Amino acid sequence: MTTHPDTPLLLRVLAGETTDRPPVWFMRQAGRYLPEYRALRAQAPDFIAFCLNPQMAAEATLQPMKRLGFDAAIVFADILLIPQALGQDVWFETGEGPRLGEMPTVGHMREKAEGAGRYLHQVGQTLSLVRAELEPERALIGFAGAPWTVATYMLDGHHNTIGKGERATARRYAYEDPARVDGTLEVVVEATAHYLKMQADAGAQVLKIFESWAEGLPDDLFERLVLRPHQSLVRRVRELGVTVPLIGFPRGSAAHAERYAAEVNVQAVALDTACPLEIGKRVQTIKPIQGALDPLLLRAGGEALDRRVDQLMAAWGEGPWIFNLGHGIMPDVPVAHVEQVLRRIGAQ
Fold it and tell me: Of 88, 113, 182, 249, which is most buried with the most CB atoms under 10 A?
């Protein structure tokens, strides 16, 4: 498919084009590595209030665009807004990360699912404010957490095993109480679909599904907790009339990446840091890919960073590919290292 030459670079790649250089944006590009972000964040009473303040969230979204000129902006929000929309208390403790209260019953949450977009209307206002200021050649990305990742926090967050990377409680529930887990996933799919529709209506040109906790699952659980819910979410989003492209990010599941690309109707698959280059090439024969620079290498900088950028360019640059990290940018990354990458790929 050939798009109009004025189409944003990201949208051209998502349509299957191979471009002269890959479009580039970074996960968590609006964040703590920028001094202007830290100054802005200090003005908000808490993190949730910051996310739901359209003026502040729009400014945070635009900060890396003004300083660094990425090809796409991603709305400043958080994946844990959906549990709040479903009636679960969510808060962030300094130095400890997210905390969630007791999860409501599946029946109670089901009553709230259709209204998730309306409940989180401030995110739509943020998108509209950003789109009004963003140059037309730069794309605007909306996002949501994937059903399993959001459900792990809802089921497990108050036990604080999430922050340790264990997710043991949620996975145990998947075996011991499948009806509750599967019901939670169904509700999160419905709520997330309405939330993503609201974002598309507000100006998001791309929507990304963040499955942060896809790794370590055996085949049967990956199919049940990741593959099928992603299929259901994409199908429901399309039923609601959303036509913008979708990027799926099943982090930590390189062994399943080709199957995911073939069976989930997203327009691109984001690959994580540990995904081998050869697997990325194989996925790229199915649909466009995104990724997968190591955030720790971005922090380290130097010649090693240049070498890896060159390796990625050589491996994936002959096909449709979006340059990104394999996970979010770290708070202590020097801005100069981000500029080094942008220069290396010809984006500055």
Answer: 249
